[in-house]
């Protein structure tokens, strides 16, 4: 019990700034709208699978691919042609896509080589797996949860400081921590209990 309270206090004190960017970082995306996010998103090795998956659904021209990528990232970042077309060129060089001309537009289609490459490798790609999590996030709810957690962390940190001044208050604070921990475990069900065993 002491260790659980100590760990919680240590975590609060270590993160006194109470930021909430870690959720994005844990997914491999970094802070929203940051350079880190852009750098991680638009690497040839990362996006090639996403683009191939799009082309497997139907052929697309470059602008369609850019808009579909923007949709994948829920508008958090809109890729520039300078980010996407080099990837398409790389895929063409590897014979994973072919190009046909429709009017004044180049339309990209996945080849059989591209389908084989996608089938053999997409399940191993960590970026694609993280993106699937990203697609299912509700960012309005995440923002609301962030604000709620920030308020809770601030109050808990202040309370932990106050508890150090008086034995009775420390006992009350310990009781609050124990109650909160148990309520969260009850809310999550028995999953956390199984993990601890």
From TrEMBL:
<feature type="domain" description="Transcription regulator PadR N-terminal">
    <location>
        <begin position="51"/>
        <end position="119"/>
    </location>
</feature>
<dbReference type="InterPro" id="IPR036388">
    <property type="entry name" value="WH-like_DNA-bd_sf"/>
</dbReference>
<dbReference type="Pfam" id="PF03551">
    <property type="entry name" value="PadR"/>
</dbReference>
<protein>
    <submittedName>
        <fullName>Transcriptional regulator, PadR family protein</fullName>
    </submittedName>
</protein>
<dbReference type="InterPro" id="IPR005149">
    <property type="entry name" value="Tscrpt_reg_PadR_N"/>
</dbReference>
<dbReference type="InterPro" id="IPR036390">
    <property type="entry name" value="WH_DNA-bd_sf"/>
</dbReference>
